[in-house]
């Protein structure tokens, strides 16, 4: 994940928007919904969770984050598209 320059020091010192979001009820609800969407029996991949961390913390801090179920669905759809592109590339290269 590419860090926003403003977040680098905060992240290293534990007070970044990402860190605050990780400890929020919104993040817990998003994680639960992502687990449900992903099957609930296996841990989420780093790629899936990094997708949530890439845009949800800033929305959350600004008070514009969607409901956890909607946010998780958006993250999951993005993740699925990336995974589908990866599989297609692998098949083309084989």
In short:
This protein is 74% helix and 0% strand. It is mostly helical and 94 residues long.
Helix content: over 70%
Range of strand content: under 5%
Give the termini distance in whole angstroms: 28 Å
Largest sheet: none
Helix segment count?
5
What does this structure look like?
The protein has 94 residues and is an all-alpha fold. Helix content is 74%, strand content 0%. The protein contains 5 helices and no strands. The protein has helices at 5-13, 17-22, 25-37, 46-61, 68-93. α3 runs antiparallel to α4, α3 packs across α5 and α4 (46-61) runs antiparallel to α5. The longest helix is centred in the last third of the chain and has 26 residues, at 68-93. The protein is globular and about 45 Å long. The mean pLDDT is 84.
List keywords for this structure.
94 residues; 74% helix; mainly alpha
Topology:
Blueprint: H1 5-13, H2 17-22, H3 25-37, H4 46-61, H5 68-93
